[in-house]
Here is the input.
Amino acid sequence: MFAAAPTVSLPSQTLISVFGVPIHNSMILGAAGIIILFWLMFYTRKRVLNSQHTKLSIAMLWGYEMLTNTTEEVLGNGDKALARKIAPLAVTLFFLILLDNWLELLPIVGPVTFHGEGLFRGMAADLNFTFALAIITMVTAQLWAIKNLGFFGNLGRYFGNPFKDPLHCFIGFLELIAEFSRLIALSMRLFGNIFGGEVLLAVIAYISGYASPLALPVFLALELFVGAIQAYIFFMLTVAFISIGATATKEHGEEATTAIGEARAV
Here is the structure.
């Protein structure tokens, strides 16, 4: 009566190896998402230059402007020039994560196999991918801080003389721990939500049996919403973390830290 029970694999599966480099099933869908994103960007650019807008190009422009305005609000200092420098990376990550989160809802994800392994898997359901994005975010934040304070000035935010200023030394130690916790939280939040969504859909399809065509659309709609929300949260946290470095002062970017608390509360 029921189909075979779904198998849950926390790590992504290796499909083939090319010159010693393993190709995982999450890379297949991820590559498709990157190709689509490039096409969307060049398509929108062409429409803007020719002044021949379509609903798709208008939607892309609206999304970009909305996210850029959000970046300005997170900075809180009305510096549009700085926001325009920070926004491109965060906005690109938003669209990339959004596309991949929605692509993983296609019917080919799960049932289609290759040598007994699922051929397709959501890129954000692979911890390697989300961890890589988190590293990019945190390294970018540090580079901005170094640009503002200098290399040793940035180190001074975390390390101090315990005899001259023990309070600053203690706070700097806590801030250093916070940097690593942000890295872990940023990657685990996205991975956990997307991987959990994939497992949920597989379980619902299994337990609903022949009624799955009626049950799954409800959960697919829910996952569409969750995928968009998770992409937006990652965008918000990326902007907030980078803005700490971009507005780094001796006061440690108080406004940006407040923005992180607001983003985490979403």
Q: What stands out?
A: The beta strands are 14-18, 21-24, 113-114, 117-118. The CA atoms of residues 44 and 57 lie 5 Å apart. Residues 250-260 have pLDDT under 50 and may be disordered.
